[in-house]
Every structure is written in structure tokens, then in C-alpha cells.
Amino acid sequence: MGELAGSIAATYWLLALAVIALWCPPWRGVAAWPVCLVMALGAAWLGGFVALPGVMALVLLAVLCHLRQHSTSSVARPLLLAAVIVLALGLALHKVPGFANPLLLQGVQVSPGAASVTQYLNVDKAAVGILLCAYFCAPARRRADWRALRPAWPLMLATPVVVLAGALLSGTVAVDPKLPPFTPVFLVTNLLFTCVAEEAFFRGVIQGGLLNALAGKRHGPAVAIGVASVLFGIAHAGGGVAMIVLATLAGVGYGLAAWRSGRIEAAILTHFLVNALRFLLVTYPLLVHA
């Protein structure tokens, strides 16, 4: 049991380091995130959390991302992007073999009247987020990049208020302030392995791709943000119709923040703020109605 816990901890923190390394400038021309990602996958391999098919799928995704970003062919680029989207979705949804993601939390009752919560260390989804963020999102590595977030601050602050108000009015949650002992693990995991991966996909790949395709079109930004937001909402269909609507609304806020600032960090931080306040202040995940 102690050996398993050690393997989980090593994989967890190396994956976390790989995510954080995305925002570190290269040292002598060498980026830190690939080194950290390889180390994390090595720890996951030793712990039995990833096998050869999973590693091969991640290598293929990295190759597809690299080819897409360096291709100048008007035919190859959309085909490569489609392949990236399909494979990334398959990995993030745990449909690709070769992964045995370990449990972090199992059957925890966070709020009275709500379903219990189970949280995994999703090695596949975390690795996808790292690759998509690295190739499609240009993480901020200079002060000027972070200063670009200033125009998005009103959206970043307003989105959680609107989304939580909508959730309370819809009756899907109730006021429930709390600070359970596993809060730090839950929030760190949510930020680094959920928010980064989901925003890299929906805002970096989908919204960013549509913005490029519709550049110069009058309603291009509205279409790009709208499509990415609706897809984000559909991805939360497991929570029912109300969750689809609320997630779509949240997606609009994330998309506007990213578009207004030109930075993926605005979307990631807004997404995390919504999730953190939802976890800390209201019923989590949702009220279960008899």
C-alpha cells in the first residue's frame, strides 16, 4: 500500500511540475515541459498507471501536434487538426487503452444532499492538456504576456458571479460553505489537470482554430466563442440539462476572457475560479433530487 501511494505521489507531482513548466522559459534552447512530462510518464509506467499503448498514443498526439503547427499545406493542416481533435478527445475521455488512472478520492460526501465525489489522477487527460497547451496556446513566459490579462479582469470576476447565481436560481445547488480537509489536493488537481486540459482543448484548439479560420469575418469571434461554448456545455451533459446550460454560460465567459486578452491564462484562471468557488461555497457537485 505504501509503495502504491509513493508511485501515485511521484506521478502526481511530476505531472504537476510538467504543467507548471509550460510557463517556464527554455533554458539554453531546451524546454522544460517535455523533460518533466517524460519523467512523469516514467513514474506512471513504474507505478503501473500507463502501458505501451498509452505511451504510443501520447507520442502520436505529440507528432500530430508538431506536424500541424509546422505544416504550410492548406490541405494537410485541417486534416491534421481533425486527427489531433479526435485523438485528444479519445485520450481525455479515457477511450484509448493503456491507462489505469489511480484513485485520489473515492466516494467522498462533500455536501449534504449531493452525490458522492470520486477523483482520479487522470494521467491521459493531464498529458493531453500539456501537449495541447504547449502546441496551441503559447503559455505566458514574459511580464508583457501576463499584463495582457488586464482587459479581461472584469470578465474573469463577473463570470463566477453569473454562473453561481444561475446555479442557485436553477435549484441545482444550494448555499453550502465548507472547507474539507482534502481541499488543497482537490483544488490543485482541478487547476492543473482539469482546467488546463479543458481550456487548452476548448479555447486553445476549438475556439482558436475557428478564430483563425474566420479571421476577417464580421461575426467570426462570436461564432468561434459560441461554438466552443456549446461544445463545452455538451461535454457536461452528464449533469443534466441545467448543467449543460450553466456550462455553456460559463464557456462564454471563459471564451470572452481568452478572446479579450488574447491569452489562454485568462480562460484557465476564470475556469478555476468558477470551480473553486463552486466547490467552496455551494453544493458540490449537484443536489440530488428524489
UniProtKB/TrEMBL annotation:
Top-level taxon: Bacteria
One annotated Gene Ontology cellular component of this protein: ribosome
Single Gene Ontology MF annotation: hydrolase activity
Coiled coil: none
Keyword list, A-Z: Hydrolase, Membrane, Ribonucleoprotein, Ribosomal protein, Transmembrane, Transmembrane helix
The enzyme's E.C. designation: 3.4.-.-
Sequence intervals crossing the membrane: 42-67, 79-100, 120-140, 152-175, 223-256, 268-287
Domain CAAX prenyl protease 2/Lysostaphin resistance protein A-like, first and last residues per copy: 183-277
The protein's name in its UniProt record: CPBP family intramembrane glutamic endopeptidase
Natural source organism: [Empedobacter] haloabium
